[in-house]
Design goal:
With about 400 residues, the chain is α+β, with helices and mostly antiparallel strands. It is built from 15 helices and eight strands.
């Protein structure tokens, strides 16, 4: 085949082995707003040229009998090989039934959510809390408590209604300007220590108020990435022996968002579960639940708050709710250096709530991160544990307590 002359027009009806010279010679035919030059190597790769002379790499394919087209980038910024690699990546997505445009919109939404999360302050959420918050089993707060909340969050500096001078900042004022995502136990502890020096009783009440605020945030799907951590109480309470795979080291948990989610079974957790007695039901059959209870009609632990309070009392630990343990897991996971996406996948967050952008990991890819978190927690708790020598052993079958 004769070589194309440099001054000859590029034939757009044929596929071409893209070269820098060919792309440079590409021009949009008269009377058209744009034209496309197809590549012979990468499926779906095109070079688009507009009537104004702008040139860019694009990917084009069909999905569900509809043509989809996605711009890759300007030819001046992308090499041919990089454009081919990107086109091949998009082709794989299309083959799996995924529209690259939808995936990019999801990633962009996740990035926007991350930006909003990092910039959202306590003061930015507080007015919504005042408007929507209320006690459990009651329609609204009492007027006196509303006034106390407003006073605690006040930044001060307003003329006093009685007497001269200006009002002082409330006990929660120092937290108002902080990003909600930055609030952790260290932040609250340091803030409380400062406030308690001058007004210990008021500071303690302010802590209770702020705990209520964080608890309310935990119920809001658009704020849950900031405050939710770990497995939910009911997810673990409903765990069955059939959900534990000691051989392949996996746990299948009933999920609030999806039907179920599967997470790695870490060595220490496996040892704890393997050491639990396996109870029997009244009819003599094995109780399917791990956290069994002969006092519950369902056969499983239904209300763990009383034993939880006993554990706290025995350990001499101040009150922390079961939901607070979820926040602790998240914070310790971050401190252990695990990626935000891995932590969120273990917790069962919705994809849009994950800060780093949702990239689901396989169990084997997730396993080292959860093991990393477990080792970190054990170290902080002063628990000596050698995962290499741990064995799950056999499960013991015992009769349920009367």
């Amino acid at each position: 085949m004769a070589r194309r002359r440099k001054d000859a027009p590029v034939e757009l009806t044929d596929r071409h082995d893209l070269t820098a010279g060919l792309i440079d010679a590409l021009a949009c035919p008269g009377g058209k707003t744009q034209a496309f030059l197809r590549d012979t190597e990468a499926p779906g790769l095109r070079v688009r040229v507009t009537a104004a002379g702008a040139k860019s790499y694009v990917f084009e394919s069909k999905l569900n009998r509809q043509t989809i087209r996605r711009t890759i980038g300007d030819v001046r910024n992308w090499t041919i090989e990089k454009a081919r690699a990107e086109a091949r990546r998009m082709a794989v997505l299309v083959d799996s039934g995924t529209d690259p445009r939808d995936l990019e919109r999801q990633q962009r939404a996740a990035k926007d959510a991350e930006t909003a999360t990092l910039t959202l302050t306590v003061a930015g959420v507080w007015p919504r809390y005042m408007a929507e918050g209320k006690p459990k089993r009651k329609a609204a707060w009492k007027p006196r408590y509303v006034a106390d909340l407003n006073a605690a969050a006040s930044l001060g500096g307003e003329p006093k209604k009685r007497g001269k001078g200006k009002t002082k900042p409330g006990h929660l004022a120092a937290l108002m300007a902080l990003p909600l995502a930055s609030i952790d136990q260290d932040t609250i502890r340091d803030w409380y220590a400062r406030e308690a020096k001058t007004a210990p009783i008021q500071a303690a009440r302010a802590v209770a108020m702020f705990s209520g605020f964080l608890g309310w945030c935990a119920t809001k799907k658009d704020l849950r990435a900031l405050v939710l951590t770990g497995a939910r109480r009911e997810e673990l309470a409903g765990l069955r022996w059939a959900d534990v795979d000691f051989q392949w080291q996996k746990l299948t948990i009933a999920d609030k968002v999806e039907a179920t989610r599967v997470i790695p079974l870490t060595p220490y957790m496996a040892q704890l579960l393997a050491g639990l007695p396996r109870a029997m039901l009244k009819d003599g059959t094995p109780n399917p639940y791990i956290f069994a209870s002969s006092m519950s009609a369902s056969g499983r632990l239904a209300e763990p708050r009383a034993p939880h309070a006993n554990v706290l009392a025995d350990a001499g630990i101040p009150h922390v709710s079961i939901h607070g343990l979820r926040r602790t897991f998240s914070l310790l996971g971050e401190a252990a250096g695990a990626p935000a996406g891995a932590i969120a996948q273990v917790m069962g967050h919705k994809p849009s709530a994950i800060a780093e952008g949702y990239r689901p990991r396989s169990i084997d890819a997730l396993r080292p991160y959860l093991a990393q978190i477990e080792c970190f927690i054990l170290d902080k708790a002063g628990i000596a544990f050698d995962p290499t020598s741990a064995s799950t052993g056999g499960l013991r079958l015992v009769a349920a307590a009367g």
